[in-house]
Amino acid sequence: MRIGINVTSINSRPSGVREQFYGLFNELIKKMNDTEFVLYEPSDFPVGKQFEKIENVSSIATTIPSDKRLLKQLKSLLYWNITKAHEKLDIFEGLSLPFYKPHEPKGLLTIYDIRGIHHSDRLYRSIYTRVLRNALISADQIITISQSMKSEILNFEPRSNVEIVYCGINKSLFSSKDEISLKTIRLKLNLPKEFILAVGHLEARKDYPTLIEAVAILKRMGLKLPLVIVGNDNGELQKINSLIHSKDLSKEVILLSGIITEDLCGLYQLCNLFVFPSRYEGFGIPVLEAMASGTPIILSDISVFKEITENKLIYFPVGNSESLANEIIKLINKSSDLITMRDYGIRRVLDFNFNQLAEKQESIYDKLKGL
């Protein structure tokens, strides 16, 4: 079998798509060692470099950039129209929209979320809706990353053929660090002794204002528990900084970007608790990272978070800063809940190992080839 994968959406910037691809693909190429994989790379990042010595993996550098949305779409249209007649593939998988594929092979589209249908800009939402519907109809198979996302996709386009392959995690990366390593990370990042941790790029759907408002409420109540947000700017940095200033929280809220994986693992273990206040997610890999680290967790009550954690953690209504503040107070004052949550998370995260997920992905490839 020969499988082509369009990885032109992946670059050096940390993202859920990037982490999922590398984690899952590393297992797939070992399991499917008699299958030839062809990676179609973006023009600005060598996605396949780490696989260059593996016999059943090859890479083709395309003319498509990984970002610059309009240029990317133009280059994609030109590239796939030119090359489609020359490819001899059994399956072609895309990891992003729009979905382009050569003419002959079966088309597989992996979708991480469909947030564009909720976009505030009417023109953008209209274009995205059309592109998404065309992709869902033209693909022979859709893979998505949660039951919540599958339901959302089918509500949008009932004709879609959807299977689920959850996001995964390399648990060993988040194993306990020794005290010397943790102390080094604390000094390096100038971290407070106690703090709340949040992880995710600075964008509107992450809803950091609700978390910052909760920290302000805690401060007014006399509980000064700093907040550390780890994430690169994705359009919300100025708004977040303005809110921090207006709430007089410059000493209580710390923004970190460009954090390496080793330091991030340390942050999960050094914090008092992890909070994920998102309004919308397709999955939520930081939830797995926190569970793997044995970190207490508070989540917004969106359906996918309850799915991942089997409705066994602590949740607050989306956008409700007072409720969040109350949940934080209750959690830090009840040590038995902290222990129960830690034990559950460490057990639950075992269900998201890449070896197991690769088996599901392989079965989808086999089924698709036989259609």
Task: Characterise this structure.
With 371 residues, this protein is of the alpha/beta class. It has 2 domains: 2-168 and 353-370, Glycogen Phosphorylase B (Rossmann fold, 3-Layer(aba) Sandwich), CATH 3.40.50.2000; 171-352, 3-Layer(aba) Sandwich (Rossmann fold). It has 13 helices and 13 strands. The protein has helices at residues 16-31, 69-83, 122-138, 147-156, 179-189, 208-220, 237-246, 261-270, 285-292, 303-308, 321-332, 335-348, 354-370, and strands at residues 2-6, 36-41, 57-61, 91-94, 106-111, 141-144, 162-164, 196-199, 227-230, 253-256, 273-276, 297-300, 314-316. Strand 11 (273-276), helix 9 (285-292) and strand 12 form a beta-alpha-beta unit. The longest helix has 17 residues, at 122-138. The radius of gyration is 21 Å and the shape is globular. The mean pLDDT is 93.
